[in-house]
Amino acid sequence: MATLSLVLDKRRAKQDGTFPIVFRIGLGKKSSYIKTGIYILENQFDTSSNLVKNSDNLNKQLYQLDILYRQRFYKYILENPDNENIVELKNYLINKLPEEHTIKEFWEEHIVTLNNSGRNGGARVYKMSLSVISKNTNLDIPFNKYTYKDLVQLEKVLYQNGVSTNGIGVYFRSFRAICNKAINMDIIGYEWYPFRKYKIKKEKTTPRILSIVEIRNYFNHAIEPKHLFYKSWLIGKLIFMLRGINLKDLLLLTNKNIKGDRIIYKRAKTGKIYSVKITDEVKQILTEFKANETLLGILSTADLLDKEKLVNIHIQKRKVINSHLSKIGDQLNVNEAISTYVFRYTYANIAKQLGYSKDLIAEALGHEYGNSITSIYLEQFDLELVDVMNQKIIDEVHLKPHSIHV
User: Fold this and answer.
1) CB-based contacts of 40: which residues, under 8 Å, 6+ apart?
2) Among the listed residues 181, 184, 171, 168, the one whose alpha carbon sits nearest the alpha carbon of residue 114
3) Among 76, 142, 143, 260, whose Cα sits 20 to 30 Å from the Cα of 181?
């Protein structure tokens, strides 16, 4: 007959002398164990009551697990009286049944998984989407209770609350990914899938770009080294001259990314490898920064060690830099508010004006352009072609100075 009991597993101690509290499953002469994640010293465990001495918090956790496992245990025994497979019994106890998974709980578990695997940026997007969606629809229900009709009603509510079409798209793509993950993990069948009928909408946006005159004025603007905006101004230049590098990737560059006369780095978001030649103009700007663990010295060693905190640090750095860039734009009377993103779009636009092909521009920016045949062709591009184009663009923006001293 199968048994289930809470015990202190004294077979092996951790280095600090503590032992794990586990649920022991017994079936015939076989035993198996379910970890609770709780470790205590031997003298802290009351063997008569199976409780932790002087710890209401730990006992509450154990009590909740005990109720959960015993409910499943007795249900399984009643439905499988002749079972002799202890592995099957254990798997039944530790895995939630489909009806026990609420959408919100599953979503929160996925966020934890992303954080634990170092994908803090992705976790932040899922957390933001969950926060918005859970305030406007009921996610405290099993997946099979959520319908296409609920999805349409959620869209309606978000529109009424002033959320843009593309904003809704961001939230719904996260929701759709959670639904797909639940299906892949056999928590719910594909026949339920509400996104099978629902199409996520997207509005085309006009990329914010600077004109050739405006970007020249930016590059030839004169800002004193001691000025508050100076480093942000230089960062804008670097983003442009490094072929529209993302700010996060720029701030994470270290001396290890410098190989000869090139900066070689992996895009944090996509994992794609970039190789950019260090031009004389880039080399000169880099001397203005005091490198530490990173090439620009803006992130500290402590910042880099705390991966979860680093996401918020990047957000704060971007806000400050974009604020400075916007004020520089006001001084130059540009039509578009300057931000770190503007330089990437402007780079592509100037390359196009100079007559370069969309294939070469896509290669410079790291895009996969066109069909698979075109993609294979792009992989064969000689880096020299991209380097020549980049230098030509850099030369172009250094022409015709219209500087304003501040």
Assistant:
1) 8, 18, 19, 21, 52, 58
2) 181
3) 76
Task: Please provide the size of the chain in residues.
Answer: 406
Q: What's the half-sphere exposure (Cβ side, CA atoms, 13 Å) at 272?
A: 14
CA distance to 48, 280, 281, 295, 358, per residue, from 284 (Å): 74, 6, 5, 13, 30
Residue 73: domain span: 2-95
Continuous segment of H or E residues that includes residue 266: strand 262-266
Q: Give the Cβ contact number of residue 364 at 10 Å.
A: 23
Torsion of CA 93, 97, 100, 101, to 10 degrees: 110
The answer to whether the predicted template modeling score (pTM) of the entire model surpasses 0.70 is: no
Tell me: do 155 and 255 sit in the same domain.
no
Q: Which pLDDT tens digit goes with each residue over 332-372? A: 999 888 999 999 999 999 999 999 988 888 888 876 544 33
Structure confidence at residue 381 (pLDDT)? 52
- Residue 360's pLDDT is 86
* Phi, psi torsion values for 3, nearest 5 degrees: -135, 155
Mean pLDDT taken over the chain: 87
* Sign of the C-alpha dihedral computed for residues 303, 306, 312 and 315 taken in this order: positive
Q: Which of 95, 123, 147 is the last residue of a domain?
A: 95
Q: CA angle, corner 71, sides to 65 and 77, nearest 5?
A: 130
Rounded Cα distance, 120 and 117, in Å: 8
Q: Report d(CA 30, CA 84) in Å as an integer.
A: 10
Gap between the Cα atoms of 129 and 121, Å rounded = 13
Looking up tokens 């990173």 gives 294
Token readout for 306 is 């705390």
Averaged pLDDT, 56-83: 88
CA distances from 30 to 9, 66, 86 (A): 16, 21, 7
| Domain co-membership, 90 together with 108 | no
Phi/psi of residue 40, nearest 5 degrees:
-140, 165
Nearest partner of 251 among 317, 203, 195, judged by Cα: 317
Same domain, 40 and 162: no
Do 22 and 90 share a structural domain?
Answer: yes
Whether residue 89 is found in the same domain as residue 107: no
Q: How far is CA 94 from the centre of its chain?
A: 29
* Pair 187, 312 in one domain: no
CB atoms < 10 A from the CB of 344, how many? 20
Residue whose structure tokens are 């918020």: 312
